[in-house]
Specification:
Blueprint: E1 26-38, E2 43-54, H1 64-69, E3 71-75, H2 77-81, H3 89-99, E4 104-108, H4 109-115, E5 117-118, H5 120-127, E6 135-136, E7 146-153, E8 167-170, H6 218-227, E9 265-270, E10 275-287, E11 290-296, H7 311-315, E12 323-325, E13 330-332, E14 338-340, E15 350-353, H8 367-370, H9 381-384, E16 387-391, E17 397-411, E18 439-452, H10 455-499, H11 512-550, E19 561-563
Antiparallel strand pairs: 1-2, 2-7, 3-4, 5-6, 7-8, 9-10, 10-11, 11-16, 12-13, 14-15, 15-17, 16-17, 17-18, 18-19
């Protein structure tokens, strides 16, 4: 990470140059525990345990022992964190001097991930009650960890169907109270939007679109079938035009106005990052002969600068995610393209961004940090995009890729003596007309968590998309025919009982008007039967879901694993939509 500067004077020491090492791939399994259904408000409460298992076949090293022998140069994160405030400057300088601490260090990949390594500053913080452990690792204490008291809506009736899978409470909280611009109570709802996470999805279930697949007409189904051979995988993805999807049309503003309205925006709650992520509709395409909608987290996810000429940008500002430093009583926003975790992670010097600053790599504010990467490290949409693909008719997750990069925030704090040895980190990088940087954001690790539906459930969804559209018209014809036969038989039986079977022949002409009335009544019966048939189908599905959920089955909806350091396994478990 750092060049060999032994023969150079201190002020000529080169800045870090980042080389990508990995991937180190782990399989993540999620198990729901202590599942409790509450019918009064149509929610389910559960705890969730996460486990990670190393997958050498998808990693650059072959065994766990190799993880211990793979050493990585990195920034000392706990020491970098002391530069963000000058509250304990004298104590920090004394510890740095006594233990000869350096801003840059080297540890094994295993120590940096799950095992952790001992740090004297972490030990001091533990004695002060600020942290619970005396070791640092990106995923330290995460294996077999349990997140408790997650409550989501079941969508078991029409009243809550639009909230299916949405978070109602997390850890007995219905909202955060940490994101405030100036440390005081928010002035209005727009200032408090960052604290809200209710009605964001936990990532496993989403409300169905406004109209389900049964609103597809038969021509649409034929077009889908004829086009399935053209779009067979994600890499050959292509937006389907209006000609290919005749039931979907766009108005003059480009909005979908068809009888199969696409959900425009979904929200994904990520409690470890203390926020919900907004994903906007991006495209519709065929994935393994299944029609899916893609939702993407775009550049606006980490933008703070408002454009006065752009009302939409100002409205969706993320400024409430900026950090309020209580000791200095100031608020500070990171450059566009990052989010500061100082507030979320109790004084941590970490920021997050898209890997390799995807979407923001051309932003001038990030130019000094883009120069830190090796020339071979470039952002690309395939590896670094943050997206979720939902099956188009029911919004069932089919594939997901959650990509996030962690950066370490280092500040050139003059009250700390040890920072003088690292002044080269904030020099102007050979640009004499620009002042030195005050802050350095050094990328250290990025990961991608992916999950994909299994083959069995994929086939089930294909069947639904192909054939469910035909269920309603066929069932209507059958019900109508059965009701007509039943009505005619009942009318004949009643007449024979009243007048006898022989007298019917002499009364045919006088019964014409009654027959007309009977046909009208038959039509009414048909409509009523159709209503009850559809309601019975909904109730049956709901009861089926309830029975599966109450049995205490294990939900392995997403089995994401992370790479670079953590990458996904292709052998994902089924997406269990029953819970």
């Amino acid at each position: 990470m750092l060049g060999d500067a032994a023969k150079n004077s201190l002020h000529l020491r080169p800045v870090p140059k980042l080389k990508q090492i990995g991937p180190f791939t782990f399989r993540q399994d999620r198990e729901k525990l202590n599942i409790r259904f509450e019918t009064s408000n149509e929610t389910v409460i559960y705890d969730q345990q996460k486990r990670w298992t190393f997958m050498p076949e998808l990693s650059v090293v072959g065994t766990l022992e190799d993880l211990n022998s793979t050493w990585i140069n990195h920034m000392n994160v706990p020491l970098a964190g002391t530069t963000l405030t000058a509250e304990y400057a004298e104590l920090v300088d004394a510890i740095v001097s006594e233990f000869d601490l350096k801003l840059f260090s080297s540890h094994s990949a295993n120590a940096l991930l799950f095992e952790g390594y001992f740090d004297i500053l972490m030990e001091q913080a533990k004695h002060g009650g600020q942290v619970d452990v005396d070791r640092f690792g990106w995923m330290h204490n995460q294996n077999n960890s349990i997140t408790r008291n997650i409550r989501i809506f079941t969508g078991s009736s029409n009243a809550t169907l639009d909230k299916l899978g949405a978070v109602d409470e997390f850890g007995h909280l219905k909202r955060f109270n940490i994101w405030n611009m100036n440390g005081s109570a928010p002035k209005d709802a727009s200032d408090d939007q960052c604290n809200e996470f209710r009605f964001s999805s936990a990532g496993e279930l989403f409300p169905p679109p406004e109209h389900s697949i049964i609103s597809y007409n038969h021509n649409t189904q034929n077009n889908l079938i004829s086009n399935q051979n053209s779009f067979t995988n994600d890499k050959s993805r292509k937006d389907l035009s209006t000609a290919q999807l005749p039931s979907r049309t766009r108005n003059s503003d480009g909005e979908l106005t068809d009888n199969q309205q696409v959900t425009k925006t979904i929200y994904l709650f990520m409690p470890d990052l203390c926020r919900s992520f907004k994903l906007d509709y991006n495209s519709t395409f065929m994935y393994k002969r299944l029609l899916v909608n893609r939702y993407v987290a775009d550049k606006s996810t980490y933008e703070y600068t408002e454009d006065s000429n752009n009302e939409q940008t100002a409205k969706n500002s993320n400024k409430c995610f900026c950090t309020f430093y209580a000791n200095a009583k100031i608020s500070s926003c990171p450059p566009n393209g990052m989010m500061d975790l100082y507030t979320c992670r109790k004084g941590s010097p970490l920021t997050i961004s898209f890997p390799h600053f995807l979407h923001s790599d051309k932003d001038k504010t990030l130019a000094p940090y883009m120069k830190l990467f090796d020339d071979a490290v470039q952002p690309n949409m395939e590896d670094h995009l943050f997206y979720i693909d939902l099956e188009s008719s029911l919004n069932i997750p089919v594939k997901a890729q959650i990509a996030i990069q962690f950066n370490v925030h280092y500040k050139d704090e003059p009250s700390l003596n040890f920072t003088r040895d690292y002044s080269f980190l904030v020099e102007n990088r050979g640009e004499p007309n620009k002042p030195p940087l005050r802050d350095l954001y050094l990328p250290q690790m990025w990961f991608v968590s992916t999950g994909e539906i299994d083959k069995r459930n994929l086939n089930n969804l294909r069947f639904i998309q192909r054939h469910l559209a035909l269920v309603t018209p066929i069932s209507t014809i059958i019900i109508f025919a059965f009701a007509s036969i039943l009505l005619a038989t009942s009318a004949k039986l009643a007449y024979d009982l009243a007048y006898g079977p022989k007298s019917r022949k002499t009364q045919l002409r006088t019964q014409d008007s009654c027959s007309s009335l009977d046909r009208a009544e038959g039509a009414f019966m048909d409509e009523k039967q159709k209503y009850y048939a559809m309601q019975l189908l909904d109730d049956g599905m709901s009861k089926k879901n309830d029975s599966v959920g109450k049995s205490g089955s294990v939900d392995r909806s997403y089995q994401p694993t992370t790479s670079k350091t953590i990458r996904a396994s292709d052998e994902s478990e089924p997406l269990n939509t029953s819970e």
